[in-house]
Amino acid sequence: MAAVEADWQIAPASSPPDEWVNAVEQITGLSRPQWGAQLLWDRGLRSAEALRGFIHAADYEPASPFDFGEEMVWAVERLMAARDRTEKVAIWGDFDADGITSTAVLWDGLRQFFSGPDQLTYFIPNRLKESHGLAMTGLEQLADQGVQLIVTCDTGSTNPQEIDHAQRLGMEVIVTDHHTLPTQRPAVVAIVNPRALPAGHPMAHLSGVAVAYKLIEALYERLPDVPTRPLSELVDLVAIGLIADLVELTGDCRYLAQIGIEQLQKQLKSDRPTRPGVAKLLELCRRAGDRPTDISFGIGPRINAVSRIYGEASFCVELLTSDDSERCRVLAEKAEDANARRKALQNTVFQQAIDQLENRDLSTTGVIVLCDPQWPVGVLGLVAGQVAQQYGRPTILLTLDAPGTEGTLARGSARSVNQIDLYDLVNSQSHLLTGFGGHPFAAGLSLPAADLPMFTAAINQQYRQKLGGQPNQPRITADLVVTVADLGRDLFNQLNLLEPCGMGNPAPKLLIKDCWFEGARHKNLTDRNDRKIKYIQTSFRLCDQSISSDRTRQFPGIWWGHYKEDLPPGRWDVIAELDYSKYSKDKYAKGQDAETRLLVRLIDIRPAVAIDTPLTPTVDNWLLDRRLTNSVPEDIKPAVREDTSETDLVLKKCPTQWQALQLWQHQASQRNQPLVLAFAPPAAVDPIHKWKTLLGLAKYISRAQIVVTAERLAEKLEVSDRTLQLGLTALAKAGFTVETSAIDIRLRYEPAINQTDDLIRAEALSHFLSAVQEEHFRRQYFYQVPVSTLQAAISAEALHSSAQPR
Predict the structure, then answer these.
(1) How far apart, in whole angstroms, are the C-alpha atoms of residue 700 and residue 693?
(2) Three-state SS for 15?
(3) In what order do the strands lie in the sheet with 149-153?
(4) Which residues of 329-350 are buried (b: 16+ CB within 10 A; e: fewer)?
C-alpha cells in the first residue's frame, strides 16, 4: 500500500496595508520587511501594541499564578505548612521531557524553601516497566520513606484510585498537571491544571513544566525573602519542557519560551554555566540554544531517549540541576548514547512497520493498528507518528508484554494526524482497555492481546461512523512562494520575527517552484564515538532559473531520512523551511556569516506542475528501444546520433530500479520527448570477484593514504551507492577502519585493532555479495524485458502512485 500523497496548499495571499509594513519596520528595525509583515498579518497580529508583545518578551505582561484561583492558594498554603512542620515532601514526575523538566523545576524551586536534610525527594516511573501517572507500588515506596506530602507534575489528574490509596497510606497529594481533567474532582489538597481556565486565557495551554513553574512563582511571591537564587534561573528548563511537549506557543507559553531561550543560550556563553548539564547537552547535539529547534531536535530528543532506551530516567533530573560539571558530563554522554540507540531502533521499527503495511489493503482502514512482540515499547510513539504522517491515518503501534496473571498484554502508543481526535476514538473502546491516557493527538494504551482483533475492528468502525470511510489526506500549507535567489539573510531575518515557532505558530513553509538539485550526497549519521547510526541525511544544493548558472548562489539543503537517489533529476516543486546550522561545513555557504550557515530543510517534493494541477503523465509511446545486442562491442557508444535525433533523453546505463525509469519518464513527459534506451547488455558478474576488487582497491587506498569519493568508488565497482555501503560495512568487519564524510571516504587497514568475530564478518560479506547478485539480476531483467512491458508498467504506476519519492 503506497503512502498517501500530501495535499499541497498555498496560504491565501494577503496584502497588509502600508501602515502595517511601516509599523513592523519601525518596531523590528528591519528594512521594508514585506514578507515578515505579511506573515505577522496572516497570523492575526493587527496592532503595534500586540506586535511589541509578540516580538519582545519585555513588552508582554504575563498572567499571575493566582489566576488559577483557590486551587493555587490551597497548594501554596499546604506547601508553606509542610515547610513550617519540616515534613518530608516527594515530587512525583514523569519520564518524558515535559515530566523530567517539571520534576527538575520543582526540585530546584522547592529546594529554595525545603533545605533540611532528606526533606525533599523525587520519583520518576520506569518507562519500560510502568506507565504514566501515579502507581500503587511507587506510592507504597514513598510511604515507607516517611513522605507526608506528594506534589505531582505533568501527571495525576486522572488517578483517583491511586490518590485514595495515598491517603490511606497517610500522604496528601497536590496535583500539578495539564492533562484531561476528571469529571469529578479527586480527593486532593489542590489540583492546579490549566484546563480549568477559560479557553481564551493566556495560560490555557501551559504544559506540565510551565504549571510547575507557576507553582514555584507563587511561592516566590508569598515568601520573597526566602529564596537565594533568582526565579529566572528556572526558565531555561521551562522552555525545554514547553517546546519538547509540543504545546501551543501562544500567550504565556510563548512568553515563557522566549525568556527561556534567552536563558538557555547563556549556558554555552559562560565559563561557569548555571546548568553545566544543559551546556554539555547543547555541545553534544551541536546546538547554540538560541532557537526552539535546538530543543525540539536537540535537547528534547536526548532527554526523551533516556527512558525509551534505559527505562529509568531519574538521572536526567540530576543532569539538569547539578552544578558538578564532571558528573554532568558523564550523564550527558549517557543521554547522547541513548539517543543514538533510539535513532537506530526507531529506523528499524519504522521499516518493519512499513513492510507490514506494504502487504495490506488499507482501502477500508481508517485507523492503522499494528503489533509485533519484538518491538521495543520505548520508540513506538515516535514510529506511530511517522506512519500516521506517511499514510494519512491515525496509527496505533503495540508490542506484547511477558505473560502475567491476567494473560499477555498488548502495550504501546497511538498518534494522530490531520486534527483527528484520537483520544476520543480510543476512549470509545475503553471497555477493552486495561490502561489509557493522553491527548487528542497522542496517547498510550494497553489491552489484553486476545482482544486486539476486536479492538481493531471496533475502532475502525467508530472511525467510519464519525469521519467516513476515506482517510484524510495529509496537508502541507506553504506560507510564501519564493525563488532560490530570495533565500538568504534578509528573508531569514523576516521569517525569524515569528520565533519561537511551534504548535499554534508553525515555522513558515516556503514553496520554491521549478527547481532542481545538484551535488546530492547522503550519509549515515554517527554517534559521539563515530559509530554509524542507521539514520540517513541527504545534503544537496538547490538551484532554479533565478540564479542562472551561478554556482556560488546554489543554496545548501538537507533532507532527513532520505537517500540521494530520492532526489530525482529534472524539475521539481519543493516545500521547505529556511533554517540554519552553526556547524555547517558546506563550502557553498562560505559567503554566509561564519557563525550562522543558512540552509533549506526539505519537507516534501513533487513534479514541477501547477500546485492545483494533478500529475497526469502521458501514456503515449515515449520509449524508443535502441538497446545494443551482444554482437556490438562494448566500447562502442550505445546511442547513435541517427537513432536519437528526435530526442536528447538517452539512457546509456542499464537501470536496476523501477524508480529510475519513472524519473526518466517524468522528464520525457515534461519535455514532450521520447526516451531512448541505449544501454549494452550487462556483463557477467562474479560477486566474489567484485569483493576481491573492492578489497584490492581498499588496500591500495590504505597504503597510498589517499581519499576517494563514494561516487568514484561505486563507479569503479559498477555498483549502486547502497551496495557500496554494504561493501564498506564488510570492509569494516574485515579489518579496515572506514571513515566517511559527506565528501569522501578514508580507509585504513588495521586488522589488529578491528578484530571481528568470524560469524559477524561472514554475515557482512554475505550481505554485500547478495546485493551484487541482486543488482546483476535486475540489470538482466531491464535489458531483456520488452519495451512495451516497460512502457505499460511505468505509465500505469505514474498514473496511480504518489508523486513523492519513497
Answers:
(1) 11
(2) coil
(3) 120-123, 89-92, 149-153, 172-176, 190-192
(4) bebbebbbbbbbbbbbbbbbbb
- Provide the grid cell at 413: 502508543
| 630 CB burial (10 A radius; 0-12, 13-18, 19+) | exposed
Q: Distance between CA atoms of 333 and 319, rounded to whole angstroms?
A: 10
Given a contact cutoff of 8 angstroms between Cβ atoms, the answer to whether 462 and 429 are in contact is: yes
* Of the candidates 624, 610, 615, the residue with the CA atom closest to the CA atom of residue 669: 615
**Residue 96 to residues 289, 314, 502, 665, Cα–Cα distance (Å):** 20, 11, 18, 47
Q: Are 297 and 288 in contact, with CB atoms under 8 Å apart?
A: no
DSSP assignment letter at 48: H
Q: 478, 612 in Cβ contact below 8 A?
A: no
CA distance 308 to 382: 10
Rounded-to-integer distance, Cα 119 and Cα 116, Å: 5
DSSP states of 88-108 = -EEEE--SSHHHHHHHHHHHH
| Spatial separation of the C-alpha atoms in residues 605 and 603, rounded to whole Å | 7
Q: How many CB atoms lie within 10 A of CB 800?
A: 8
Half-sphere exposure of 392 (CA within 13 A, CB side): 18
Tell me whether the omega of the peptide bond preceding residue 276 falls within 30 degrees of 0, making it cis: no
Sign of the dihedral defined by the CA atoms of residues 769, 775, 779, 781, in that order: positive
Write down the residue that cell numbers 590504505 correspond to. 702
C-alpha–C-alpha distance, residues 292 and 299, integer Å? 10
Could you identify the residue written with the cell 510547575?
A: 212
> For 92, what's the count of Cα atoms within 13 Å in the CB-facing half-sphere?
33
Strands 510-526 and 532-543: antiparallel
Confidence at residue 17, expressed as pLDDT on a 0 to 100 scale: 92
Q: Which residues contact 30 (CB under 8 A, 6 or more apart)?
A: 24, 36, 493, 494, 497
Strand partners, 481: 511
CA distance 418 to 385: 12
Residue 748 main-chain phi, psi, to 5 deg: -130, 130
Counting Cβ atoms within 10 Å, is residue 543 exposed (0-12), middle (13-18) or buried (19+)?
Answer: buried
In this prediction, residue 288 carries a pLDDT of: 85
Alpha-helical segments (H) within 651-740 = 658-671, 687-704, 710-717, 721-733
Which amino acid is present at 318?
Answer: E
What's the pLDDT score for residue 616?
33
Cα–Cα separations (whole angstroms), residue 541 to 308, 599, 722 = 35, 9, 21
- Is the distance from CB of 104 to CB of 212 less than 8 angstroms? no
Q: Angle formed by the axes of helices 97-110 and 300-310, to 10°?
A: 100
| Grid cell for residue 195 | 484546563
What's the CA gap between 428 and 364, in Å, rounded?
Answer: 20
Reduce the DSSP state of residue 300 to 3 states and report it. Answer: helix
Give me the helices (H) in 433-579, please: 452-467, 489-495
**Spatial distance between the Cα atoms of 346 and 352, rounded to a whole number of angstroms:** 10
Strand partners, 651: 677
CB-CB neighbours of 646 under 10 Å: 10
Indicate the DSSP class of residue 404: B
- Residue 440 contacts residue 421 (beta carbons within 8 Å): yes
SS3 78: helix
Residue-level pLDDT at 427? 86
Residue ranges for the chain with pLDDT beneath 50: 1, 583-595, 610-620, 630-644, 796-806
> pLDDT value at position 567?
82
Strand partners, 623: 675
pLDDT of residue 620: 46
**Amino acid 623: pLDDT:** 76
284-303 residues labelled b (16+ CB within 10 A) or e (exposed): bbebbbbbbbbbbebbbbbb
Q: Which of 654, 626, 629 is nearest to 641 (CA)?
A: 626
Cβ partners under 8 Å of residue 24, min gap 6: 30, 33, 36, 37, 40, 51, 497
